[in-house]
Write a structure and sequence with these properties.
Bound molecules: S-adenosylmethionine
Shape: globular
Number of helices: 12
Distance between the termini: 57 Å
CATH architecture of the largest domain: 3-Layer(aba) Sandwich
Number of domains: 2
CATH class of the largest domain: Alpha Beta
Largest sheet: 7 strands, mixed
Strand order of the largest sheet: 3-2-1-4-5-7-6
Number of strands: 7
Structural class: alpha/beta
CATH topology of the largest domain: Rossmann fold
Order of helices and strands: HHHHHEHHEHEHEHEHHEE
Helix content: 40-55%
CATH superfamily of the largest domain: Vaccinia Virus protein VP39
């Protein structure tokens, strides 16, 4: 009986009180209404400028943007950007242009911030997202920032057969493939299938870069209040670095490098074909 009451109170706290309070803030509204995985929410986390309805909304937004999980998301963006920047520099040394394919790109902020490298033509990026609004956002922001050599397309990255056709039509083969904020939403089978596809897609020496969560400090909050853009409850898959090390090795990747962040939440994994 007491257990039932406690469960009821817990649900009431999360699903009624917190949910309604969070909805006053831009990030809370995004997580609860628009869909927690939306690239637009991530753009807002990267901007780190509180917005919301009235003073209370901005206050709640500020609190959400300061959560360790959100700080870790900003950190992961920085880390991915550094890895790509380094790869572009190494390729430049060899007189080579870097071609980046970003799967489930959202606004691809970690690429857009490499403005100079895109401008020089040292890097060309193609960003794919299934969400029409994310694609429009990426196009709009990159145009506003005056970026060159970065393109946003709508597509389902789980149909990489289409991507291959698309790439061969353009005569454009990526030497870097990014998947940031993707595998957390997918089970082991789908994840392994995708990584194998990426392996087959990459040329020799090609680099894969992806992020993964081993933990999330606001796990309970996200599970209780967050929903996907399809309105479904959020199911997240947390994985330890060794899971990735073994899987990448089994697929055939080498030079596996896994970076664990200071919060022990995000891992940035890189590996070479
Ligand atoms: C968590 S956001 C990550 C955005 C960006 N990569 C980042 O890390 O900032 C996940 C993105 O994946 C996109 N997405 C999810 N499933 C997809 C699929 N099957 N094909 C293409 N995009 C997908 C969503 O629309 C969303 O924009």
């Amino acid at each position: 009986m007491i257990k039932k009451i406690l469960v009821y109170l817990d649900n009431f706290l999360y699903k009624v009180i917190l949910k309604n309070l969070l909805k006053t803030s831009k990030l809370g509204f995004g997580i609860i209404v628009t869909g927690a995985e939306s690239g637009a929410n991530f753009e807002h986390m990267y901007n780190n400028r509180p917005e919301g309805s009235f003073l209370i909304g901005r206050f709640v937004d500020k609190a959400l943007l300061n959560l360790p999980a959100v700080q870790a998301t900003r950190g992961r963006k920085e880390d991915i950007e550094k890895v790509v920047w380094n790869e572009v520099g190494n390729n430049r040394l060899l007189g080579r242009k870097t071609r980046v394919l970003d799967l489930a790109s959202g606004g691809a902020r970690y690429l857009r911030e490499l403005a100079e490298e895109h401008h020089n033509g040292d890097v060309e990026s193609i960003c794919i997202d299934k969400d029409k609004l994310c694609v429009q956002m990426g196009k709009k922001l990159s145009a506003r920032e005056g970026l060159k050599n970065i393109k946003f397309f709508r597509g389902d990255i789980f149909k990489l057969v289409h991507l291959r056709k698309f790439a061969s039509k353009l005569n454009w083969i990526p030497d870097v493939v990014i998947a940031s904020g993707l595998f957390i939403y997918h089970n082991n089978d789908a994840t392994e299938r995708m990584l194998r596809e990426i392996y087959n897609f990459l040329p020799a020496e090609g680099l894969v870069i992806f992020s993964s969560y081993e933990n999330l400090s606001s796990r309970k909050l996200m599970r209780k209040v967050g929903s996907t853009s399809a309105g479904e409850e959020w199911t997240l898959y947390y994985r330890k670095p060794d899971y990735w090390r073994n899987l990448l090795y089994k697929i055939g990747f080498r030079q596996i490098f896994i970076l664990r962040d200071q919060w022990r939440m995000n891992n940035i994994c890189t590996a070479r074909k």
